[in-house]
Request: fold
Amino acid sequence: MKIKIGNNSEYLIFTNFSPENGEKGEFANDFYNVSLQLNVNGITSNIGASIRVGELSQLYTDLLKLYDTLKYSFVFSSIEDNVNLHFTPTVTGQIEIKGYLRNSDYTGSIDFTIEADQTFMPSTIKEVKKFLESIVGEN
Reply:
């Protein structure tokens, strides 16, 4: 399972979801370890992070609102401060995603900007929803 944010050339992918405690959890405070694969302007990275189910649920809600209005800005940030993404629509119909990724011991980080046409959003919204649906009732 993966969640891809961005277009074919510049993107951030959440992948390799695994429950932090070894058991699938559906509750807002349950943590999942993920790999964050970034590809921006020829720079690539792969950083591990911890994401709570509630954070992904809020990301889903915010992405829907942004896609529906193309005027809504929001910030997605993990409680562990490994990932921080600012989603902002532009006047040209693009979505600007400014953010940073940090490794789990906070010794390295990367700042980046992705500017993508909003056409990536339906598949991203579907992927987040699919992940959330996959964990419901499997606790």
